[in-house]
Amino acid sequence: MSAAPHRASHWRDFPSRLSTRLLMAFLVPTLLFLAVTGSAVYHLARSLLEEELGASLSNIAAATASQVHGERMLTIDPGDDVDGTRTWRSLVRTLEGVRDASGVRRVFAVDVHGRVRVDVGGGLPVGAEVPELARDRLELARVFAGQHAASQVLFTGSDGRLYKTGYAPISHGGKVVGAVGVEGSAAFFGPLQRLSRTFTVMGAGALVALAIIALLTARGLSRPLRRLMDSALRIGRGDLTTPVPSEPTLEIGVLARELEVMRGALESRDRQLKMMLAGVAHEVRNPLGGISLFSGLLQEDLRAGAYSEAQEHVARIQRESAFLQRIVEDFLAFAREQPVTRAPVEAPALLSIVCELSSADARARDITLEVEAAPAVLEADGSLLTAAVLNLVKNAVQASPDGGRVRILGAEQDGGYAIRVHDAGGGVPKSEQERIFEPFFTTREKGTGLGLPLARKIARAHGGELHLASSPGDTTFTLTLPLRSTALSRPR
Questions:
Q1: Which residues belong to any copy of the Histidine kinase domain (predicted)?
Q2: Residues of the chain under the 50 pLDDT cut
Q3: Edge-to-edge, what's the strand order for the sheet holding 416-423?
Q4: pTM of this structure
Q5: All structural domains of the chain
Q6: Closest-CA residue to 424 (of 402, 455, 442)
């Protein structure tokens, strides 16, 4: 089984995985934040309110203790509550007034042994032990040492509510003889718990809203990404003709544009490759046919003993073989992706080298080569650039009439450097000027049609361009290149 269906299936799961990841990215941090923040706020508010309640109850207890006469309190004995003695009734009225005025549930007075002298709201008889004092023994130790204190632990009353107790010492003659206890309801816990529930509901609502936002965001991202994915899969399957649709989102739009540029480049390269293969097949067929024809004639002449004719056929076979070899070499030079190794190149020196390499062909036709080059330093691959200009000069020499002149000019132009190769040949017809840079397009019988396309390819690889301006008797190829300073300033 091929890997393509598996890869397509893998990509089909992309939107759902993107939605899951966005949900996790939105919800998990929010859930943790709400849980931690809500818990911290709840416990902080509870702690502050408990502390405030304890301080309030201990202050009420202190105010009550200041109204209690310690010596008279100690005179209350078991049974006084039954007999209703005057001292007991007086203390009860005092404590009841405190309870009614402050709204607390219970107010009681005990001696240093923790036995009840008066209990308003609790119902314990005189002389009974208060069970809650065992729970608050540490606080009572501080109270009997002369300090105010409040119970550290909330307790649940018979009505199911939470309560807290505040204590204050009762003194007589500079000595602590007892304590007042005031029990108050932690009524604030009702609103606090309601607030906690409200916070929980709001947090759940926020999570649901974030989930919806995450899903909508994932959908908004997955749709253009799916379109890009489909385009990439089409390109991978070899469909290079369907354009990549543009996307409105900035980042995804950049990806779409770059993918479209890549598709266009691949389509152009594929079309060029097909054209080159067709051109190679066409160009190779002619010399191969000639070689086959002349080799058959050579065989017949050798059998007949006509050695002079045989030598002519051998020469023709060699010419066709040389032309075939040139086709292959030009094809490889054009098709090969050669890396550009940039280095400083003196423009006058480069054009002089090209002139020397072209001099033999020029002398054969009595053509004069003229070089005029302004000093400049190019950032270029010397060997590739030499090959490109050499192709232009050879083309000009072949197009020039016998005894003519080819001018090679170099000068700065528009912040770059322009190399112009001028000849006075018959020119290129306008109908052919658009096709002259196509691979294998040639008007000469023994031309490969790859020299000019290769020259333009080398020019573009250097960040330059190759243009043609032609009319009868005046043809100029202009190769523009960036100067060294310009090239170095560009990011690579």
A1: 279-485
A2: 1-15, 486-492
A3: 368-373, 405-413, 416-423, 474-482, 465-471
A4: 0.43
A5: 1-237 (3.30.450.20), 250-335 (1.10.287), 343-489 (3.30.565.10)
A6: 402
